[in-house]
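Hi D.,

Good news: the full-assembly prediction came through. Inputs first.
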Amino acid sequence: MTVDQISPQQSAFSRKGAEGKDPRAPVEPGRAMADESAVPIRVPLRYRNRHVEFFYRLVTERPMGAFGALICIILLLTGLFASVIAPEGYNAIAPLDRLKPPSAEHWLGTDHLGRDVFARIVHGAQLSVIVAFAATTLSIVISVVIGLVSGYLGGRTDMTTQRLVDGWMCFPDLIILIVAVSVIGPGTWQVILILGLLFGISGSRIVRGAVLSTKENIYVHAAKSMGASTLWILWRHILPNVMPPIIVLFTTRLAAVILAESGLSFLGLGIPPPAPSWGGMLSLDGRSYMFVAPWLAIMPGVALAIAVFGINMFGDALRDLLDPRMRGGTGRYMARVNRKPMP
Amino acid sequence: MGTYLLRRLLALIPTLIVASIIVFGVVRLIPGDVLDLMLTENDYASTGHDTRAELEQALGLDKPIYMQYLSWAGNALQGDLGDSLWRNTPVTREIGDRMPVTLQLGIFSLIIALTIAIPIGIYSAVRQETLGDNVGRTFSIVALAIPNFWLGTMVVILPSMWWGWSPPNDIVPFFEDPIENLKVLLLPSLVLGASLSAVVMRMTRTMMLEVLRQDYIRTAWAKGLPERTVVIRHAVKNALIPVITLIGILVPILFGGTVIIEQIFRLPGLGELLLQSVNTRDYPIITGIFLITGVVVMLVNLLVDMCYGLLDPKVRYDS
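Then the structure:
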């Protein structure tokens, strides 16, 4: 039995059933024995630690996802150690060095104020990481609260909530963002707040959907018949079982938040200068300099594209590995499952 | 179908009310000090809105809140969205002047996105796990990560550097001089369309793969039909139905995209008006555009649902 034969229902994060049981116990004894006779065992079957097992599956089944994870880790480390990597800071103005092309001294050149573009991109990574994590965490909290309440309580509460969400969701994201910024003004905290609210409300649909399919499980009815309180059921039974889609939502939202923030900053409505937002570095204010110094336009965009690419890849892999319900037909894993010989 | 249409229209009413309250709430949320800012920063003195009381009256902030909502909603229903604070022109006329450019940009981009993405998506699915499929998928993965404002900036900057060429932005109405009009709008539409095509491609490929696994496709193969017939007559026809719903998802993204693309290519569309109004704090125009985008998205979704029903006989309306 190789890793391929792990049934999709036994994802690395499903606690129920996996605990207290020997993880090596075959799911379907007949098939496992047949496979064992056919396939020589070279790799360890399954790891006892589910995190290690998950990592193993990520690397072997979804190498692009592992590559994406690597990009995410690099982005995170760059953000954490920005002031170590680029100690001169993001706003070290040096008029004599203005608009210098990339060189050994300034790896990615300098901008119209003589600031080192590499240093600004590194500090921009920090800003992106902060905004992305703060806004995404906020949005997930909002999604989970709305999704749990609306999905579990159902009835009139659900109806009302869903109409409100409907009304909210008929506005284009960027238009909401622009209008909201026009009212509460640009700034880091404002952007985090608005992005969190925006993605929080739209994400609640996904959580609600997962809750709807979970709440009909027999263990929920059992808990209810034993007199468990609604809060206890939500916390102990529903939430752990809707965790996989929430984790997937989290990663996809990270990329969306980074893109939305840089789009806003590009329009001059996000994080105001001199903060080194990648979108802000591309904004129209610097347009006239970009014609003479194209690296000003190229480098922040490349950084942005790599970051979003990495998060997307990692998110796709997570979705395929964690949550079979959300999987499209595109994954390699799916293809392998389908090719499994008939017993 | 008739009763279904009626029911769908009735179901739109609560959504519309919620949406209008959201739009209305935005104006109410303007903190008081913004009014002071408007007076000091945005030199409204020349437009007759020079005192705080005058400004409050123009924004309708001087009455109790439910009255404000009712009179605003009543006027909006009659097609009156108020006057621009800055130019004293009706908001509807301002929006009407800018609408054609945005609409044209949006429709062109959508057509371009669909014509690029659907054939590649179909090919990718039919030749799954081949070189062509991998090239197509890599394209879509990379295109998903490239933000449209960066792509647009590159398209403006690089040709100008290399050949001293920059895209024209003197727009003429399409029906006056289609060729001149296309010269201006083609490049922006291509940029927006290309960035949208990634989503459509992934969706088409997923749907095709789903359909290709169905029993009726196996039957078609077993009958000995040629590949062309199996793919086009049996698979594509069924796979494209869900792809149509994608248009409903794409339209809000398109609205956001046009704002950015209009800004990059300096086109006088709705997005440009919106950003300009944000800078001058012209709230009647901001709320007007906000409301109209919401209503357009709602109507497009209704239309998509209708088409879905017409194309897919499995969808029943009388349940």
